[in-house]
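quick q for whoever's on today - can somebody do inverse folding on this one?? i tried earlier but teh output was garbage lol. tokens:
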């Protein structure tokens, strides 16, 4: 019999070949002032010993022959003499990127009946009061709360807000970086689209959330450590996903007519800008990948992925099946 999870909070952490960063992230979750009720670690088939490290931390059994397969294990992560924290390890059959990882994790947390889902990458380090602060704001009327993102120098990623903005800001903050989601958000918009693989998947998910009229906020008293990210046009090797997924977002955006036109124009501007910068930085291979991403983004059929992700919402919850290997969930 499934335990009662009414009002419960689960943390969902997606990881891939960053064992030591994951260890630090889990320690930060464990030492929260108000800890989650359960932690789900979604592993994109790491090869650096992540599975063995988690087996040691959480005390579940793991045979050497299982490391190459998809699996799910449960254990208790804790320290000697203190209360443990239930942890589920979900190992995917292959690397599905951040998009596939969060899709699988959100499906699992939602299907298990948790009221709140706390999402982060393995390099996130929430401060001790982060979850308690997020929960102090989260409610029926505020079902999406993002923390302020803090870089390695202790500075906010969003300095332009200024003190005058107050602590509660009507802004999407850092998607998937410590954001707290109520399950009714998932029911309303479905799951992230796993076919994005990496780059832009979190923003597409937020496009849907905002289009559904759901209140999106950032609470600046909740602080989540995360390094700043920027595109190195000389060395970057992900131009294909950068462009293809921007085209996907333009095709999927479902706002009002005026805002849709402006959004598509912005997407086109970003595609042309990024493509030119790759070529200007003599990264010809990736500049050509931009062209390939533009072609694939315009041509690829998104209808199946929309169905798989329950893009228009989940009519009956939880979904009737979950298959870890393929990250597939059937939607009635």
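ok took a stab at it. sequence:
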């Amino acid at each position: 019999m499934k335990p009662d999870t009414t009002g419960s909070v689960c943390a969902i952490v997606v990881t891939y070949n960053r064992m030591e960063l994951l260890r630090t992230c889990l320690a930060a979750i464990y030492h929260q002032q108000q800890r989650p009720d359960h932690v789900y670690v979604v592993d994109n088939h790491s090869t650096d010993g992540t599975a063995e490290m988690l087996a040691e931390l959480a005390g579940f059994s793991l045979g050497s022959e299982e490391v190459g397969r998809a699996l799910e294990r449960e254990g208790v992560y804790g320290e000697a003499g203190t209360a443990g924290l239930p942890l589920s390890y979900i190992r995917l059959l292959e690397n599905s990127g951040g998009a596939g990882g969060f899709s699988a994790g959100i499906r699992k947390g939602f299907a298990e009946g948790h009221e709140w889902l706390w999402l982060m990458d393995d390099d996130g380090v929430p401060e001790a009061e982060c979850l308690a602060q997020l929960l102090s704001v989260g409610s029926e009327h505020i079902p999406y709360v993002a923390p302020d993102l803090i870089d390695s120098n202790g500075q906010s990623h969003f300095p332009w807000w200024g003190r005058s903005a107050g602590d509660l800001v009507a802004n999407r903050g850092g998607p998937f970086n410590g954001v707290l989601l109520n399950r009714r958000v998932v029911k309303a918009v479905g799951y992230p689209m796993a076919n994005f693989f990496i780059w832009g998947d979190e923003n597409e998910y937020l496009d849907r959330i905002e289009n559904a009229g759901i209140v999106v906020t950032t609470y600046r008293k909740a602080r989540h450590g995360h390094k700043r990210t920027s595109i190195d046009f000389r060395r970057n090797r992900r131009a294909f996903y950068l462009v293809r997924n921007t085209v996907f977002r333009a095709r999927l955006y479902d706002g009002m007519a005026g805002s849709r036109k402006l959004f598509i124009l912005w997407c086109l501007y970003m595609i042309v800008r990024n493509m030119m910068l790759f070529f200007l930085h003599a990264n010809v291979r990736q500049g050509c990948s931009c062209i390939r991403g533009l072609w694939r983004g315009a041509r690829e059929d998104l209808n199946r992925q929309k169905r798989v992700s329950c893009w228009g919402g989940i009519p009956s919850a939880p979904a009737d099946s979950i298959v870890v290997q393929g990250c597939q969930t059937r939607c009635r």
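fwiw The radius of gyration is 20 Å. also The first strand starts at residue 9 and ends at 15. so keep that in mind when u check it
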